[in-house]
## 1
Amino acid sequence: MNALLRIFKVLWVSFWLGFATVVVFIPIVVSASLSSTGNLAFTISRVWAWLMLKVTWVSLKSRGNENIRQGQSYIIISNHQSLFDILALVVELGIQFRWIIKKELRKVPLFGFALYKSRNIFIDRSDRQKAVRSISAGIKRLSLGVSVMFFAEGTRSPDGEIHKFKKGGFATAVESGLPILPVTVNGSRKILPKKALAFNPGGIELVIGKPVVTEHYTHDNLEDLMDKTRNIIVANFNPDYPERATS
């Protein structure tokens, strides 16, 4: 019975993923083509993410929203527990942001093209210098108030712990002078852990920390900036969510 239920869940989410992607593809491409900012395309993508959360029976809540100043651009740094982090962040943060995406995703039919037209930033992970230049150029093309999202660990956690942070997002914050917005995602791993195919209905919480000003940091003390941001994200991390609430 459990095997049949898992198969049903995989087929169910696959159907809705395909349906939702096809439905929003044309509106996203048209809106992105008509707009130089990609903001409308991002807003439409929130509909796609919202629908996927609804059909998988995932609820969202957030704390610390008062720490976001509307109109301010941020380098958003988040932990990464599940593919559902992407949906939760798009829907619940309530601000415009763009993703740093590996260039291979541009080849995914419909989805990759929609990401490109929405002004997301594609990088070549095999070439660090080229990736840095792509990110720098991508940030300069963004309109005022649009942020950039980095998953600090670079990939989903395999065991639910918060692992070592990579330097890319922090170096970008120092070079751009933008403040860091630390965000902790709780609960998403229970919905879809890494390498799993079948989802579990549940709840996801976003905890938004106070922004970290970066103007006094350089590449020489980048580790200090990383430690400060990581401490905020870890302090708000609750691996038992939603069974046990943090104080």
## 2
Amino acid sequence: MTEFQKAPADILERLTQLRAADAPTHGGHVLSYVYDSGLAEIDELASAAMRLVQPVNGLDPTTFTSVAVMEREVIAFAREMLGGDESVVGSVTTGGTESCLLAVKSARDLWVAGGGEGMPRLLAPVSVHAAFQKAAHYFGLSLDLVPVSPTGQVEASALINKLGSDVALVVVSAPSYPHAALDPVADVAAAALAHGISCHVDACIGGWVLPFWPEHASGAPAGPWGFTVPGVTSVSADLHKFGYAPKGASVLLQRGRDRQRSQYFATTRWAGYPVVNSTMLGSKSAAPLAAAWAIVGALGASGFAALAESCARSTKALTDVVASIEGLRVVGSPVGPLFAVAADESVDAALRVDPHHWADRARAHGFVLQLQPGLTQSDGGYLPPTTHLTITPVTESVLPELTAALVAAADEVRGVPTVRAESVFAALPPTIVAGLTDPAAPALDADMAFAILGGIGLAPTGASDGGAGLPEQMAPLLALIEALPAPLTETLLTELLARLVEPRR
């Protein structure tokens, strides 16, 4: 009998202690990253399904035939939900990023096969998810991001006028993550169709909730956005968001078998077994797929609709709360169960509420909101700093507590000026400021970046159990992110995340 170096009970006890330092994944106190249905039986069902397929390798559905059955049935449900006919086929992926990467790869390969030469262009609003920036970087496309209005809306003409023979893919969102704006899908897709250009709808966050959104509720889509729209060639929709599945599971649906086959990788040109991969990974867990399949089977359309109605009620309640708070405003006309909040510039500065200070105080009251920095666009247009809230079915159970926290947090920071990068610099040692602001400073290597992180109080702690070294107040950090050149902040943040997982003495 194998002797364990550590007792299983002790290992699980330590994991329990580690998890205690995490943000809570249930209960509605984190309004980003987690999507809690509020149904304990759904979580238990997902766990049981995952345990049943724990040893299964999703690499080969001819050996593990359950994988093929589950994927086929999830795709069938998603296809009907998103308005697709029999020409629409798809895959279950490990998440929205993989779905988006594969949509871009497919479009690029089809563009090349169609005679495209040089570097293809990926055209999208600046509000499109960062996964498409990653895809352009990985697959060698030129990224053409079109400015949006301060409310996150993009004009259809701004995208349509930039369509050309070098565009491999145009992307629109349903809705965009930062501001919950529904892009003009029908107009852009029609123009793309006329030009023979692929059009992807990123519905990673909206795909499993907008089809069930109450028709006359606030936040309902104003028009079609799925496969009922001519010209839409692919749609991504995350099962681990409003499909309530554990991470990571998403679907990518494509119009036409030949289009979908272009996402595959296959080779027989090596000494081992034939390799045929529908997604980026080879060997992969079947557990998220099994959990998603079980949840879809249990909830069905009526179950998803009931949960969407809960989200709609809570979203309306919370946008009304924000609208009633002097100094804050909801950005634009958000679609679905998410919205962004900005300072109300129409009131006197003494009455304004900075959204980042507000989020910091809301955290002190027990609720985690997501801070988003301001962004200066290529045309000089400015998207102001915001705080993002994603609403899930469990939110309804904490509405009174959450409402009180949001109101109290605003009262506590009303009139407090927005953090400016200059004030952050003033509190730093001159050598650190020089490293951050001097254009002639040498490019940062890992050690230099880590030294700067330490100087601004962001170096990971030396403790063995968690701790990122992040300050309690995030507003100053967001001010730095907005003020510093993007390549510099990206280097610093990369170093922060990389150091978190390096072994410590």
## 3
Amino acid sequence: MYKLFLFLRSSLFWVFFLVSTIVFAPLALMTFPFPVLQRYHFIVQWSRFNVWLLKLICGLKYEVQGKDNIPDGGMIFLSKHQSTWETMAFQLILPPHVWVLKRELFRIPFFGWGLKMLKPIAIDRSAGKRAVEQLVDQGIKKLKSNWSVMVFPEGTRVKPGKNVRYKLGGSILASQANFPVVPVAHNAGEFWPKHSFIKYPGTITVVIGKPIKAFDRKPEEINEEVKAWIEARMAEISDESRWGR
């Protein structure tokens, strides 16, 4: 009966999620004449609405630790990636930022249209070394324009308890641009699991670390420090009893 209850609540959320996406996407396209920052603040309202729905319908809340660690100006966020949740909630938690993502996402009806209005760093992941060059070239321009850059170094959503290699792209950008790296850990995958229809009630914990300096450091060194910090925080906030959901 409890599973049925969760299924019904999640179904209701998905209905509102899809309707809000279909309604909001054309409105997002109408922001095209405005500066990107104004578009961002408008489109973020879609995320705000759906994060609020998660709390109202599914009982899914969040708490943030270390928000005062975020410096002023542009920076590179390197974050754990477990769920769809953080792609919405980070827009509410963190200062204006652009994602590094695969170009194919622009092809998704409605969602991809609105996403393109935010001018993210879209790369061709099949391009190998050229993909990293795209990230660095576009990333430096964004950082110098006072935008922050969000990179998921794992490259894809990873289930709780699983460890994968952290890719160097974000650390290469930090090293070449000489902008600070801010690591972020969270356990959203324990409540909104990868490929899961059901959303589980509870409180997601987000932990924001102190800035890591990139000046005169090799990307591998930066990457190792980021991974060590994130995985140490994950060990503190994770609950193995929720991994099998």
## 4
Amino acid sequence: MSILRKAVALIGCLTVSIGAVLPVTAAPKKTVTVITDRSDFHLKPIFEAFEESTGIDVQAVFLNEGSLPARLASNADNADLYITTDLSQLATAKDQGYTQPIRTGKIRTLPRGFVDGGGHYAAISFRGRTIVYNPKKVDVKTLRGYDDLADPEYKGRVCIRPFTHVYNVTMVSEMIADRGEDYARRWVNGVKNNLAVKPNGNDRNQAKLVSQGVCDLGLMNTYYYGLLMSNKAQRPIANATELFFPNQSEKGTYTLYSGVAMAKNAKHTKEAIQLIDYLLGNVSQNYIAQSTFEYPANPKIKLSVIAEGFGEGQPGIEKGRAKFAHMNPATVAKHRETAAKILAEASK
């Protein structure tokens, strides 16, 4: 065999050999990146179910509550989706150019007011900012609304988590939008004058203080009451207290929305839309209702048995469904800075 033929034969053998041992390159795994200031308790089970259902990997970054705005300002987000405890923060993110319209019709199935007019963000769930009270010390028939917390009648009888917490900032922002800055300032100062102890702990701690008789009234998100009821060790706290939905004869109880937005620079928009649709689908919405005790954005989803007991006995409350003040998140967002200043002053 000539040298040329030997060389050709050798190259042929090498080609066959290499072809036999090289691994087949797998297709890149589809992913979607989420940055959120909600807890893993609220979202991780949903993400895991989504991954199992679609094969899409959710890469989630869990921030401290309320810290999403600072993360966006640092230009270090690198996200496809933002999910936050407070929809008004997403309204601000939209105004600052951090979001883009969500290209899916699923968000249009939500109630009016739950979706940004330009489609930049949508609510996933919400909870009411209610009053937790001690029924042995307070006759529910005498309660009216948030004004009670600032009424001199309750001096030394009110508990609240730290004034500057994001939940309070959002609520006071809604209050300013609803009744004006002067009213909100008087209300905050009235609550400060009525405090039984220095603000501390989370909402469940306020319920604990009420159950112990340290105070008679406190502020509490509805879902925390559900968490107390579902926890055997903490159930006595819930059993010793009740929830009251304020302002039912007016615009209704102030609400805190959890929501989702598409990042302006999202790289995996197709996968992101799939996750948004999953968050608003029956599986996720039922998980929200049954396990986190929040109100799902889809009004057709049945509440948990525990949530159906919220406000039991209060006129107008039927199976946990109350009159809520569903305010425009963009309007609320405009008052956040003022609300934060008022609350910071009260903390001094």
